[in-house]
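protein under study:
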Amino acid sequence: MPADRRNPLIVQSDRTVFLEVDHPEFKEVRDRLMTFAELEKSPEHVHVYRITPLALWNAAAAGISADEIIEFLGTHGKYPLPPGLRKEIGDFIGRYGCLKLESRDGALELSSRRPEPLLELLHMSHLREHLAEGEIRERDGRAVVAVKPECRGRLKVDLIKIGYPVEDLAGYRQGARLEVNLRRELPGGRPFGLRPYQEDAVAAFWAGGGAKGGSGVIVLPCGAGKTVVGIGVLERAQAQALILSSNVTALRQWRRELLEKTFVEEGWIGEYSGELKEIRPITLTTYQMLTYRRSRTGEFLHFKLFTARDWGLIIYDEVHLLPAPVFRMTAEIQATRRLGLTATLVREDGREDEVFSLIGPRKFDMPWRSLESQGWIAGAKCVEIRVEMEPELARRYAVADNRGKFRIASENKEKLAVVKQLVARHVGDRVLIIGQYLDQLKAIRRELGAPIITGKTPNGEREALYGRFREGEIPVLIVSKVGNFAVDLPDANVAIQISGTFGSRQEEAQRLGRILRPKSDGGPAVFYSIVSRGTRDQDFAEKRQLFLTEQGYTYRIEDYPAPAARMGYEEPMERAS
């Protein structure tokens, strides 16, 4: 189809893509664009995407061809596609699968359609040390070189850094057998089964049990049942498993889900934490536990978990949180099937390529708003409320360094008045107040009398407070960063974010996710973010919102005080005297 000025896209030769927000095809084009491009900016009328190599490699791993991408851009572009961009897209897509890792006669081989990439590899000393031999052979029309089996992971990471994403077809060992069967009925009589998209996610990861399956990442929003997907994969594997999560609360949630939704006996599930040291056929532990050492230069005392049993599957919950030491250990265990679960693959340290290489490519991703439209997650309204700073605080802000500016603006005491009014207007709702700074959270506790959970709250007390919140005994709960991840609070329907971690997009996604589980009354959730106007707090808020904007959420910007009609309140917010 020829270019048409009425189309929604402008595609430029530097791989930048502009998408008109007000175009009638916006949603359809955005959802397709997400499969091979990354959102960089989201001003009101035009969203800015970039076609990155990693996004194209994820698309290639999902079976999307260069021709499909080029045709889509050409069909929806206002102007003809730049000729150079056609070639770039073809080159990048073609690089995935150019190099393949395969197992032949018990040996590990790296092969290429043509010898040049392997010749380049042989001339780089840090890559050559991963090879078992120093010469290139020919097998079945492909150039081949032998690889040391223990270097399988490190080689993949080193190669992606120079632009060669490896397709790993070397396969995986079965691991020690463990019978895992899903229940068809939950305790209490409710029917249970995987939802259609959960079945699709499991099938995409497993890929029939062949070499193309068994490693990769599944991306689903909080509340969409990532844990159930993990359990579905475990049923396919029928093998012993190590499950890594972000905190003790999360791993105990895994235990509850396993006992509720499978016939796995309680004695088969072990918790390896600061409180218990159980290694069982299904062992649950945390990233913090794995990376514990007595000194900065000491050994990681609990890495033995990776080899404590003949695991058939390792599940990395909240895979975007993987700490560097776990990356390194994961590089050593590439013969074990690996599943990453996350609400967003965004990493603020830029190590998404290592997740791609060591855990695997993105195998399944579904737009959040698609799940919302089908009723699997709650609808959500996002509101950013901007407050002023008092003159004295503004003066302190003006002379502070950049880091100081961010903290001063984040802890602006004017935010407290907004929180109090929001809580007063949401009587009868389950309200989470989430923040970064403990002094700020404690000040809110003094004002509201609501309980608080921080990193120092003992696990027993933490779980008791979450339980009372679930039951409705506590209508308002204050949480620090520990509330970002893997906390099952199905009836929470209001979140008030008062401060965050700089421009962390994944944190924004996780925090919205706390309130996305479907509500018993079918009502929408509300996510408030309170920021200081015209400050670094506001600048970082715009960065934080990028991922959710890409998913189709819009942030309504309101001033404090704001007119009641626009915010849906019964009365306007009033500025504290």
Summary: The radius of gyration is 25 Å. The chain is about 35% helix and 20% strand.
